[in-house]
Amino acid sequence: MKAGKYMGFKRISNSLGQFEMLALDQRGALRRLISAFREVREPEDLISVKTAILKTLSKSVSAVLIDPEFGFPDNLRHVPARTGVIVAVEKTGYVESMEEKGRLSELVSEDIIERVKLSGADAVKLLLYWSENASEKVKAQQMKITGEVGKRCEEQGLLYILEVVTYDTAPQGREFHVMSSVKLFSRDEYRVDLFKIEPFEPVKSSLTRSDVQQAAQGKPWVILSGGMDVFDFAKTLEFNCSLGASGFLGGRVIWKKAVELIDSQDLMEEYLSTSGIYSLEMIKEASKRAIPYYLTPHIGGHERLTLE
Length: 308
Hints:
By secondary structure, the protein is an alpha/beta fold. It has one domain: TIM Barrel (Alpha-Beta Barrel). The chain contains 10 helices and 10 strands. It has helices at about 5-10, 30-35, 45-55, 110-120, 135-155, 175-185, 210-215, 230-240, 250-255, 265-285, and strands at about 20-25, 65, 85-90, 95, 105, 125-130, 160-165, 195, 220-225, 245-250. The strands form 2 sheets. It has an 8-stranded parallel β-sheet. The protein has a two-stranded antiparallel sheet with strand order 4-5. The longest helix has 22 residues, at about 265-285.
């Protein structure tokens, strides 16, 4: 493993090698949350919410996921030295292909990977929209951008996190699309180090730990929250840790209600430092059985690592 990637793993995980990570890279979703209460002022409103979250919650997580557009890099001042930093490199949302069936991801800029490296951040995250029912041309373009980001992260020695969000999943079901995407992008050519995926559902899923490990080639993975209820997410997280998840990278499940207080920075921060911390601690408790990244089959223990 490249030394830069290993240090990225160490920086974004807790002392046990588990991931307790906070996502606040939302842009379009955050605009929609704010617009439910009043007209959105840009960029002030998005920056104020993100600042409140970082100031109150970043000290209680192993890493934060931020976007490169609203407040970056100035907002790094609010992240404690012990907390890792991940930067999203995709534009918010997706491009709906007019000629072909499917959704396309785009990078914020051509030099975004290099900008992340220069900022001193610990990892890169790419959000990829994926459906096995998309056209072959759309899937090929999504595979191309995934591989290009992987190649550039390898060159820069940056840890590479791939977030997969599925769509158009009928009739096979979401689980099928999640598993097929993980199986594809775990191949060496994509250079993905850590997967962020939609959670497998308790009771409904018939998957075993072996099934997921085989699909991911033993690479570590975490789940996203998708804005679900905090109690439901805690139960879902426990189940996914039993399947081999190494933790979580959750966002709105922890902080979305703070947006209702958008007109007062003080009230947002008060909510986050009380109710937000409570939700976060509940989620962290549910992830106690998460598999340390270095014990996943792909790595197989610290003693087996050779750094270069």
